[in-house]
Specification:
Length: 301
């Protein structure tokens, strides 16, 4: 189950300040699933906000509402401590993902000096600026609203399976995430929020996660979780791993229901799979069973 926030009530979740939140002066990726209740209105729907909108440094990610300029587009805004930023302030999509009320996978990827947005695995919006350094706002990060709780800048919708990496994920990895693979199958998230219903915890650091009114929502359907081991690059794998890695640098010995298959003699279309079988789940409200879950993860019953 995801976390649902009500736009009118100002529901949100906070992540306490931690060095793990820092967007480094180098490559990084942040992404996860989001589902809008609607996108009516003439302002914005913020779903990630770290410090004030014009603060240095700060990070903001939001949809333009249907009656706003650049209607239904998606913007990500990163400012460093010196006030440097990408483009004219925001990296904006050319498409209009705000028209959809289905689950969508979003990612922001910094590679070198370029910041690119990805929507459902496809690049949509990019800006380059060599002057932008790290972003460490040293305050809580807000999920579901802008950090100042402006009533015209809140999310009405749900979020699930968000994570951050201190590297630029490949296009194959981003496409696999959008196809349903979970973040823990791609080395190695710095932080990760499973967002299973009323369990407000982070899997890795751990970060301090505080709920402020959000409720359980159905998870995106058909997600694929690791059932025995997290995928690792074949080059870093030990002798027990397959000796014939896929073109994406990942090895496997099984086939998932999504069609990302590989074995010692075959390669998946994306070049990505788990080093053992994967479990595909379609949870609904009240269902938390995660049979086959890796022993590295907290079990749900």
């Amino acid at each position: 189950m995801g976390w649902h926030v009500d736009e009118t009530s100002g529901h949100h979740v906070t992540i306490g300040d931690n060095a793990a939140l820092t967007l480094p002066d180098g490559d990084w990726t942040m992404g996860g699933w989001i589902k809008l209740d609607d996108n009516t209105g003439n302002r914005y729907q913020y779903f990630l906000s770290w410090s004030g909108f014009s603060s240095d440094p700060s990070f903001q990610w939001f949809f333009h509402e249907a009656l706003q300029a650049d209607a239904n587009k998606l913007s990500v805004r990163v400012r460093d401590a010196d006030g440097d930023f990408y483009g004219t302030g925001n990296v904006m999509s050319t498409g209009t993902p705000g028209t959809s009320t289905a689950w969508q996978h979003l990612a922001a990827v910094r590679s070198g000096s370029t910041l690119t947005q990805y929507i459902n695995g496809s690049a949509d919006g990019s800006e380059t600026d060599v002057s932008v350094n790290s972003c460490d706002a040293t305050t809580a990060m807000y999920l579901g609203m802008r950090s100042d709780n402006d009533p015209n800048r809140r999310l009405g919708g749900a979020m699930a399976e968000w994570a951050k990496w201190d590297r630029a994920l490949s296009t194959d990895e981003l496409a696999a995430l959008a196809a349903g693979w979970t973040p823990d199958q791609f080395p190695t998230p710095v932080w990760q929020l499973r967002m299973w219903g009323d369990e407000y915890s982070e899997m890795r650091v751990p970060l301090t996660v505080t709920n402020n009114g959000s409720t359980a929502a159905d998870h995106p359907g058909g997600l694929i979780y690791p059932s025995a081991a997290i995928a690792v690059p074949a080059a870093a794998a030990g002798a027990e791993e397959s000796s014939s890695p896929s073109s994406g640098g990942y090895s496997s010995s099984s086939t998932s229901s999504e069609g990302f298959s590989s074995s010692s003699s075959s390669t998946s279309s994306m070049g990505i799979s788990s080093s053992s079988s994967s479990t595909r789940l379609t949870p609904q409200n009240g269902q938390k069973s995660m049979s086959g879950m890796s022993p590295l993860h907290e079990s749900h019953s």
